[in-house]
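Hi W.,

Here's what went into the run:
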Amino acid sequence: MSSTNHVTMHERDMRRVSSRQTVGKIVSKVMVYTFLILMAVIIIFPFYWMLISSVKSISEYRLSVPTLFPREILLSNYVDAFQQANLGRLFLNTLYVGLVSTLLSLVITVLSAFAFARLEFKGKNALFAALLGTMMIPGELFTITNYATVNSFGWMDSFTVLIVPFLVSVFYIYLLRQNFLQIPNELYLAAKVDGTSDLKYLWKVMIPLALPTLISITILKMMGAWNSYVWPRLVANDEKYQLITNGLRNAFTDSTGDVNIPVQMAAVAIVSFPLFLVFIFLRKYIMKGVSRSGIKG
Amino acid sequence: MVESKHKWKAWLYLAPAIVLLLIFTVWPIINTVRMSLLEGYNSMSAVGGATYSFGIGNFKQVLEYNYFLQCLGNTMLLCVLTVPLSTILALLIAVCLNAIKPLQRLLQTIFFLPYVTNSIAIGMVFAAMFNMVGSAFGGENEIIITAGIINNVIEFFGGHAVNWINAGSSYAANVVVMVVYIVWNALPFKILILLGGLQSINRQYYDAARVDGTSRRRVFTRITVPLLSPMLAYVVITGFIGGFKEYSSIVGIFGEDMGPAGAPGRLNTMVGFIYDSLSTQQGRASAAALILFGIIFVVTMINLYVSKKKTHY
Amino acid sequence: MKIVLQNLTKVFPSRNKKAGEEVIAVNDFTFEIPDGKLIGLLGPSGCGKSTTLYMISGLQKPTGGKIFFGDDDVTELSAENRGVGLVFQNYALYPHMTVKQNILFPLQNLRGADKLSKEEMLERALYAARLVQIDNLMDRKPSELSGGQQQRVAIARALVKMPKVLLLDEPLSNLDARLRLQTREEIRRIQKETGITTIFVTHDQEEAMSISDLIVVMKLGVVQQIGQPQEVYDDPQNLFVAKFLGTPPINVFDGKVEGGRLYIGDAAVLDVPGVADQEVTVGIRPEGFVPDENGPLVCRLNSVEVMGRDVSVVSSHPAAQTPAIRSIINADCKVNSGETVSYTLKPHKVLLFSKTDESRIYFEVK
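Here's what came out:
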């Protein structure tokens, strides 16, 4: 094949091409890093702003030229936030609701996932398909009737109303079933031959093997309790049963006009802090769970 | 007989889930359809013995109701603005992240941070950043003491402060704030999924393209994007579904008034509309919820159809 | 275009930093590849042959040494500026593009003076497709093609931009046995037709021997021998090369040379004039055995396999390094089905190697 586009290059041309190559590479690396770091700053800035605002005095906060480093660190904002919004009480409420609902939810999810993954019964596939079908429906559609239902049960203003309606997550059942299915069926049959009961097998074999998924579910469920806002707002107006996010909004929107933003930011920081802690220590599980699920906890 | 023993056992294991699902999932589906078809249904008066005629009156009423149309419009607008914007931005970030080695893990962690936040809480931080501090309730000529960090930045670069979210702010300004916040919030999930997708693309396609002297742009448009299209489709679908259910991010910034002081409800969304009607006008709320479901269903189907056509290989 | 590799070296830093060991993938490789030839880079896995190929393509940078295309030093030039065609082991066809789009892809990259019109591109794509005989599959997606067809598309894609060099990484390893035979002839034909200098990598010596103009045998990053296939087979420079080439493989015995005679066990099997007395490793090609009732090399007979034209005799001998000795003899020669079989040896099929460094010890063949 004769070719016109590969005329012999001379040494000098070669050197020019190769130095252009190197320059191009450096320029593009610089651009990539600049873009990423700029975006990272934008992403992180609200957190930074929250933190520094939460320790400023109200007068420093209102300076017409804002300070990027607080002149004095006023931790009393945190005390104020705690007291004004009764965050201690709400924190305990949230913890209680989160723990109980996670625990019950795990039991229900594991049992259902086991039945769908390992047991044979009539209508299994149809039932499973029907369950998956409900995932298409936006949760708001259920809320209308559930609101009336819990009302007629007389559950308003109780922990029950915060826990029970959300115990079953079709998605978690699905996730765990998929995980269970990866465990070879021979293990189950071997256990049967040895006379191991279903529950013992579940506890000794399936659960340890599916532990990462269970941890992901636990974290997402806890985060869900921590971040839930709409439902508690609807059914628990008594502060005795409110959750932490509600307290955040209640405490600072009721005051008209001048909101004490530093105290507000302190409250926001208090609510955000545990989430960060969880993230730092359990990053792997969260990111894995999220990339498989794609739902907000 | 092992088999027969399993049959009742399986149902035993499933019992708690099934009972709860019947009460809190299946019954609501039936009931929502029922209520939406009883014209002007209201559970309070229904208990009192009132009867309702059967028909599609609720749907008609909702669709002719200006406020609902406004909520629908807001939702659509936010979706159309935020989904493409956040997807493109996430794609750029993911591609850049995939191209670097030092700092990759650190940056990846930073980009994931917004995911583990409470959208109400951080919404309040954004509100504070876009806020005007001081007396914004005064007359037009009153001097604003501090304009919030965003306005400070704008003024630093020689621009004029904008009334973003306070009383008297424009609808456009409100929407900009919402778009910024929603995009900020939507990025981490999209980056995570897209980066995962990028990392699973066989490196050899890139080597092959390099040997053939393909420019960066062409590699991006002709190889990366098509090979990433299943992930992109997934991110766009979930983005739209999330977008149509937008609610708490607006509460985070504007509070439950769903709008700036003086213009409550201006930024209300479909979900907000459903919650507003939930305790008093169940017929109307059900109709709205079914419309929301219909929209999500259609959008998902269109997306699936398009992506199937485009990603078939 | 001729290609010159000058002291080419590639060192990979160790994965394990603590150990601090580096892996030398290619060590001081110097070789001039003549224009328009088909070269086989041959060796067991991990011998550095693929690394060499990737360095020629520009995808990997050498740690030391230089690469010339013609008279031009391309060492610092990255892959896109070298004008090479590379066929990957698993083809790396873009799964979302049709065959036609795959073949057109490299042409659409050309910019500036090299830019082609749409018609020219199509014409060249069609030419390349015809060359590999896939012009009837142009609108299929890679997933709708068989392995052999995918291979051809990959070659067409590499050829369409008229590269200075065509590089093939294990081109036949993903094909089944029958296709492999057919495809290697095909590669030979395409190379002959285009006259493009072609280098391919393989671990299959038969494949390399059958189609290459020259073969390069490598081991652990070091080139063992370069030459025409028959020449390397007949005249290996060391035991490794001798063992690596040939099916069935060469039979290896422990032996010694005393007074110009080669002994295997106690039997003097061959005169080897000019070789000093020493212990040696003896390699005998399967075709080097001649059955002879009075032959000096007496082996225990295990089995006789008739393979049509030839007969394969499996026997054993205490001095052999492998449990089975395999010899190929003409079917006309009768092998008595007894306890033992005796051979005389064809001198030019007997190779001696040093016990100390496995290098070849030459002797005069009368």
